[in-house]
Amino acid sequence: MAFVQAVVLAYRRYGADPSAALRLAQIAPSELRLAQARVSARQFEALCRAAMQELDDEALGWFSRRLPWGSYGLLCRGSLTAPDLGVALKRWCRHHRLLTEDLLLHLELRDGVATLGIEERRDFGALRELCLVTTLRYVHGYACWLIDSRIPLLGVEFPFERPAHGDVHPLLFPGPVRFAARRASMSLPAQYLELAPRRDERAMQAMLQNALSLTVLQYRRDRLLASRARACMAARPDDPHTASSLAAALNVSTRTLHRQLRDEGTSLQRLKDAVRFERAAQLLRQGRQPLKQVALAVGFASEKSFTRAFGAWAGRTPGAYRGQAPGEDARRQGHRGEAGDDGLQ
């Protein structure tokens, strides 16, 4: 309801009556006084659409000037032809300044992490929270749509104390949320910046008819989930990597993990096998460690079961593998396509 109240404040700023928009969204005026009341995503989307059109301000009163209906559509079009998401986000940051200088967006890269930060150059008062939350959701929603992938967030930060409705923010952002930070920002794995856009002008036209859904609802599909899952397992070789523990580490539900891996043509077991093979191959190349110890190190209870599994992966026994030419295992794995390997990238 705090977000609904902020939209009503925009009406007051322009001396307009929000009654029609509230009726359209099926929000009773009496509910505005209930601080803990909730509305659905669809209700809030309907309210914002009506308010933006009626007030002719897509910024809903945040900035020192109106952003007429269609302003953010221009930002979307300006990034559509970028060769990759990284360039698209840089364009978005640059073009946003053409709309307003009340806040500036900055994209920073460091140690494999991309961070989009907000520099506030105006006191937004009671509209501050909705302004910052929506600005980040605009960028995140559009980025997900552009590359057709759910982009996980490594962290989201806001420069205000946790509000009473702070449990809502994790629903809006797929990643850890922290309050009382230095500035508003969101961080994501930099590898997503390398993905090329998958949309064209026709898709853009269709998206803009229902663009607010990208701001309110989470994008579902993650194109890099399989590679992220595999990297997570490789980084923690001693963990059991159950579906529930891996899903928690990737910030998705267990059901979503299984569904998206299936959509990418692989499975949790195939990824486990790929990580096990790489670990076993590394240990075999490094020295003369007994096969039983190698088997235990990669999660097998016996040397016999390890030998049988390794033969299926590499086409030869672990003992024969020790003497093969360097790099042959990589070529063999590439030809066999075993364990959902390169086809997932």
Task: Describe the overall structure.
This protein has 345 residues and is α+β, with helices and mostly antiparallel strands. The chain has helices at 2-13, 19-24, 41-55, 71-80, 85-99, 128-147, 169-172, 201-208, 212-216, 225-235, 243-250, 254-263, 268-286, 291-297, 303-314, 318-322, 328-336, and strands at 103-110, 113-120, 155-157, 177-178, 184-189. A 5-stranded mixed β-sheet has the order 1-2-5-3-4. Strand 3, helix 7 (169-172) and strand 4 form a beta-alpha-beta unit. Helix 1 (2-13) runs parallel beside helix 3. The longest helix is centred in the middle third of the chain and has 20 residues, at 128-147. Mean pLDDT is 87; it is low at 325-345.
Short descriptors:
Arc Repressor Mutant, subunit A; 5-stranded mixed beta sheet; elongated
